[in-house]
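Order emerges. As here.
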Amino acid sequence: MTEQATRTQAAFEALQEEICAGLEILDGGGRFAEDVWARPGGGGGRSRTLQGALIEKGGVGFSAVHGTLSPLAAQALKSTAGEFFATGVSSVLHPRNPWMPIIHMNVRYFELEGGAWWFGGGIDLTPHYVEEDSAREFHARLKATCEAHSACADYALFKAQADEYFFLPHRQETRGIGGIFYDRLRAPDFDRLLAFGLAVGRTFVPAYGAQAATHRHRSFDESHRGWQGLRRGRYVEFNLVWDRGTKFGLETDGRTESILMSMPPQANWVYDHRFAPGGPEAETQALLRKGVQWLA
């Protein structure tokens, strides 16, 4: 491995530890179970899952894999077949309370044969019920993280890229309220990009903690849980149909259980579902669109 790859792998392993420790405190009852796995083509990872008080199903995965790109993976990376190295940390949390949102975070680093390398990542929020004050608080945190690393991070650009990426074309709706998304970052230099990626990872737990402080103790009934199941269904549709990370993992012989760790514990699909006009479900649906300026 290159010196950059070695440093990034170690930093991401430590980041997984930090995130898991923070989430156990935030959950207030759950403890992570660990599954260490090896990839047949080279490398492996640690998948950690949690079923707790706040988090019905959560996962924080670390991986560092290497080998030869398949033709499909090479095409996805707009590269020729050859050797690759990839490492990253990814987390998805599905809460029990429907008023709490789903949250996703990923930071990653790639190297390809011939010397190409880059960073990617981001954080996004998928509320079951969109509440504008909470959306603004979430985006303000992401903007602050970007501004602290302004040499390589542009909140407005990364927010627009998240709107484009976390979109379900077959539904003509966004997965949630977006966040930030970036890929193939190489400038200005390795050290500052690694520092930014770690900062994104360290924004994850405090951002979810702020959502929990507002929503975790709100009462709900079966109608709210029903809507949560439908919103979880949208999350599944995106991950299985459109998500590039899921496809890359499966196309490079990644561990299926770890790749699909992001799936909710249960999701619903109701044929031709109609919600009552003027209710919170209708208000949420109206905000599932690109270009909402939460901080305007």
In short: Strands lie at 33-38, 43-50, 55-68, 83-95, 102-112, 117-126, 167-168, 173-174, 178-185. The mean pLDDT is 95. Residues 190-215 form the longest helix (26 residues). The two ends are 44 Å apart (CA to CA).
